[in-house]
Structures are given as C-alpha cells and as structure tokens.
Amino acid sequence: MDNMVKLTVYFEAPFWVGVFERVASGKLAVCKVTFGAEPKDYAVWAYVLKN
What we know:
- By secondary structure, this protein is α+β, with helices and mostly antiparallel strands.
- It is built from one helix and three strands.
- It has one helix at 41-50, and strands at residues 4-12, 15-24, 27-36.
- Strands 1-2-3 form a three-stranded antiparallel beta sheet, with no helix packed on it.
- A hairpin with a 2-residue loop joins β1 (4-12) and β2 (15-24).
- The longest helix is centred in the C-terminal third of the chain and has 10 residues, at 41-50.
- It is globular.
C-alpha cells in the first residue's frame, strides 16, 4: 500500500484534536488540526472533504 491516509480524533483537554497521517512514496507527513468543541461526525467529514 503505497498511498495511505489515516485520521485519528482524540480529546486533548480542553479541545478535540484530529491528526492526519499520510504515507506517500515511503514518506510520512503529519498534520494536527484542533476542532475545538466535540465535533460531530458530519463536521469531521466536511473538514476532510474541504481540505
């Protein structure tokens, strides 16, 4: 699997955080996103589609 994207959402007081991990061509790229208040599933999915 050469191209893979993973999203982990967790609570880091006092905010909910998302960590995106992408592996492409054997290289790892990571991005941390602060969602703030507990995000709904549709809000996370909208963020993924937009960004």
